[in-house]
Specification:
50% helix, six-stranded antiparallel beta sheet, 20 helices, 24 strands, alpha+beta, 22% strand
Length: 799
Amino acid sequence: MQGPNQPLNQSCCCYIHCCRNDSRDQANLQAVAGTKQAQPEGDRTHIETALRESEERYRQLVELCPDAIFIQRGGKFVFLNPAAVQFYGGTCAEDLIGTFVLERVHPDYQALVRARMQQLQQSEIPAPLMEQKLCRLDGTVVDAEVTAIPLTYQGEPATQVVLRDITERRRVEAALRESEAQLKLDILERQQTEELLRQQSQRERLIASVTQQIRQSLHLDTILSTTVENIRHCLESDRVTIYRLDGSSQGRFVAESVNPEWPSLLRTTMRQAWLKHYLDQYQQGLVSVFVDVQQAEFSPGMKRFLQRYQVQAGLAVPILQGQKLWGLLMVHQCRTSRDWQAHEIDLLQQLAAQVAIAIQQSELFQQVQQLNAVLEDQVQERTAQLAQALNFEARLKRITDKVRDSLDEDHILTTAVQELALGLEVRCCDTGIYNAAHTTSTITHEYSDSLSAVGQTIEMTARPDIYQRLLQGQHLQFCICDGLLIRSIQNSSMILACPIVDDQGVLGDLWLFRPNTDTFNELEIRLVQQVANQCAIAIRQARLYQAAQAQVAELEKLNRLKDDFLSTVSHELRTPMSSIKMATQMLEMSWDKAGKLVSDPSDRTSRYFQVLNDECDREIKLINDLLDLTRLDAETEPLLFTAINPHCWIPSVVEPFLEQARQQEQQLQVQLPAELPTLHTDLDILERILTELLSNACKYTPRQAAIAVTAQANSEFFWLSVQNSGVEIAVVELEHVFDKFYRIPNHDPWKHGGTGLGLALVKKLVEHLSGTIQATSQANQVSFTVQLPIAPPRLAEVL
């Protein structure tokens, strides 16, 4: 299959040739059939078969052809292949059959097509290939290659036309022509660009060279000489020079590169008056250009000067230092006049800017040289200050460490005055402590090479000008010249007074004395202030510590008195309570023998006896608990170690509580692992611990809730746990459950009451066995876990 842009005369010649051959075959066969009807029947059948095969080949060829093929007869479409229908934008051949062919030809080509059609009918020779514009059914115009051949269609003369859409090819050809024109323009532009780039590269190399000289050297003469030499060779001029304005009536040429054929301007002068008409122009950065000195509008003096040095054409660019005109960069052509190019002027302006930078760097270098000596002095002075600051920092750290490590106020102040006196090399350093009313200052500590003033009390009202500022937290440096003595050493001394102050107020002050010819510098004052602040913090801490120690001693004394009181009261109450208990029991037995006591719970007398017995038991338990706590606090209770089998011992302790749990509709369970080691501890104490925990669990567990006793162990520890559900203790309450006389409010569903000593006693007993106890509560459950060593440390002592 041929491509869409292949010329029609190459791609479709085979179709035209085949069509012509098939047409001739058809005509010949018809002639033979008409003239030789008398031939045998077999020959006629053979001819008809050949004719049908030829027609079928022709039909298939046309139908499958990718180019548009149609047949016109009498100027109308009579046949279109599918490609022709698609070419004209139809949906089927019936959209075009019967319509005039010229209706589908662009109006500009209709006359030409009509003439070709007539010529084709007359000559019966295939029409040559022609490009024309055709119209589709939707009105769009397309370019097409057209060729046509005459033929006989259905027994009448007709024309077969082959079309190919060349719209895309036309577009590509136009684009190629446009691209070719653009390519020529690009080549020309590239040549121009290359020339500009060559010139630019040359300028950049020159600028880079000058810039490198500026960077490598700070000597202005060297930089200027190199610059003018490079410019002269680059511009191929006769002379390049730099003219400097010196602020007077005369300016001079300070750098030059000149062809040996021409006179030199170096170190000559030129009157600035000759340039007065151009100074404002130069000040604004504008350039002066003259192509021919004879036509230039210069002053007579300027013209004579230029002619004397044979200048024919020139270019002058200002060298600016900020807003100040420093001088001019000049280029002279002496051999002939010269038309200066824009890129030459631009190059000179850029180089003038670089020269301005070099001049500025050189001037800065001279200033730096002048400042070096001053900076050296300042560096030495600063180094000394830094060394002093580092020394002061180290001393401050040493003083801070000493005063913070001590809670003794005397030691704190002694350290402060000694370290300051030695570190600042003063004649004396002392500290005064103010009274509570801030009316007097007493010298308590001193480090001095003269008579001591320790113990001296100073009335603040004697020097309100000093103490008012100190009380406001301000330091001051002064000399006392009025003769009013505060300290004996004050005469002929420079004094630095600094308050010892914190956020709570002024505690005292630090005074330092040195000869009145020496003042305290900023670093020294800052050091004294920081030491005073550290002293204030340390003094507050020392005083708080002393106050706390006194409070602790007082609390310990009160606690001992309380314990002694409770022990005494418990001992004193134990005997009467035992007597009351015995008397109650005897009275109950007597009434029972006399028949006056009935077992009915509703009987008032029985209830009275029950209340009396319960309260006696409660008070006796409270007294016993208090006495046990007293003995445990005194650590006088000996331990009787016994080997205990947990599997036998725990159920025996739990058994008495099973009935109570059943009556209260509680579930009491014992959960023990199969293997538990033998526990060595005091059996009575451990039994009392478990009994108290079980009693506490039964007391605070509601109906239908569960109580579980569990145990675990490893090679070192034994854990015994009592858990009860249906109740939960808040976190804030858990922190106090082991405190003496503490009872959790609203957690006693059975209203048994209690003394608040049970868990406190349990904790003491556990600690007495070298163990710990922990209370936890979560998910509506409370757990008390006791941890005991399998073999406590005291066991080895007993053995």
